[in-house]
Design brief:
The protein has 352 residues and is of the alpha/beta class. The protein is 25% helix and 25% strand. The chain is globular and about 65 Å long. The structure holds NADP nicotinamide-adenine-dinucleotide phosphate.
Length: 352
């Protein structure tokens, strides 16, 4: 028998959709993605981008670093290294990204959500029920689909960047920053948005110094994050520069970076044991190419204002996969809720 609702993706939008669909007794099935190094390297691990982040200070309702007793003790212990004690007097607490995601998943499970640790690699929306094809070689049939696959971190595409990937080049400070090779050494972070500042701030806890390399002379990051970078004595902002080459040696991995001025002809070399890219994201829609309407950047298009409808009736989109503008955990959760309500109403209208 066909499923009523299949949710593809396991970030804030996916779990929120699951909580709503489960409470509507639609027994949703979530494909949370495979836990492989390929998915991790591509920046799309199960539980989404927040699983790769440190603190989430702007998700309402979580003004504490850690909620004791809600997660399985082994899982709880596995993310303990992320929960840095705050300096005395700093009351700007937030939950860690992994804590928040695991709590969301637990809440979805509590109401009867079923979870499969596979990717959906292809879809057939030409017939109903729809057919989804999994990375495990199975086919699942479903009346509605909620796409919540999010977006993944970009790389610059330099040959030297690819050569030293996982040998000092990373797009995830939280995943890799605590590795011994980065401790007490200078590091480079490329980018000028909130992610770049967050990564630089996080890495400064381990590194001797962090060069935050930005191609302009003004950060895109929010004011509070800008201030954090400026106030951090370990962060040196290298304005008007672009990463031209990652320097390294076969045995040592990354040893430095060549930075080129974006306003003149100058170039400078810095010693560094790591280069972290934080230059934006690409939506995870490759498996939907030609199946759903997308914008020029590959984000799914909502075909009706205030609705999560896609170009195929019965297929809904939620979270960053359809949002290249707000891209916040809370907006993703909000559209996840909307998608579940849209799916529920669609099923009711069709008598399914
Ligand atoms: P973003 O805001 O799009 O910033 C990307 C940065 O990378 C920009 O500074 C951009 O430079 C730079 N960049 C892009 N392509 C580049 C290239 N080819 N070479 C050099 N630099 C390049 O992305 P984000 O920082 O990942 O943030 C995404 C969203 O998540 C934002 O809405 C952000 O507010 C949110 N976020 C929030 C938090 C938080 O609140 N704690 C943390 C992380 C992210 P230009 O500025 O010159 O365009």
């Amino acid at each position: 028998m066909a499923e009523k609702v299949v949710i593809i993706g396991s970030g804030p939008s996916g779990w929120t959709a699951a909580i709503y669909a489960a409470r509507a007794e639609l027994t949703p099935l979530v494909y949370e993605g495979e836990s492989t190094s390929e998915n991790s390297d591509a920046g799309r691990p199960p539980l989404g981008q927040l699983f790769l982040t440190t603190e989430v200070e702007n998700y309402p309702g979580f003004p504490v670093g850690h909620l004791h007793g809600y997660l399985d003790s082994a899982i709880d212990a596995s993310i303990a290294y992320l929960r840095f004690p705050k300096p005395e007097g700093d009351d700007k607490h937030g939950v860690t990204g992994p804590d928040l995601m695991l709590l969301m998943k637990q809440q979805a499970l509590n109401f009867g959500t079923r979870v499969v640790g596979e990717d959906i690699v292809a879809v057939d929306f030409d017939q109903r029920p729809f057919k989804l094809f999994t990375s495990g070689g199975k086919t699942v049939e479903t009346e509605t689909v909620i796409i919540a696959t999010g977006a993944s971190a970009n790389y610059l595409g330099l040959e030297s960047e690819a050569r030293y990937k996982n040998h000092g080049v990373s797009a995830c400070a939280v995943c890799d920053g605590a590795l011994p090779r980065f401790r007490n050494k200078p590091l480079v972070v490329v980018g000028g948005g909130d992610s770049a500042v967050e990564e630089a701030d996080f890495l400064s806890k381990f590194a001797s110094k962090v060069f935050l390399v930005h191609r302009r002379e003004e950060l895109r990051a929010s004011k509070i994050m800008q201030q954090r970078a400026i106030n951090n004595p370990k962060i040196e902002i290298t304005w008007n520069h672009a990463l031209a080459e990652v320097l390294g040696e076969e045995k040592l991995g990354v040893t430095g970076a060549r930075l080129e001025s974006t306003v003149g002809k100058g170039s400078r070399r810095v010693d560094a044991s790591g280069v972290f890219l934080a230059i934006g994201h690409t939506p995870n829609t490759a498996f939907l190419k030609g199946k759903l309407q997308m914008n020029a950047k590959g984000y799914l298009v909502w075909t009706k204002p205030q609705r999560t409808y896609t170009s195929v009736e019965g297929v809904f989109a939620a979270g960053d996969v359809a949002d290249d503008y707000y891209r916040q955990a809370i907006t993703a959760a909000g559209t996840g809720c909307m998608a579940a309500l849209d799916a529920e109403r669609y099923l009711a209208a069709k008598g399914l």
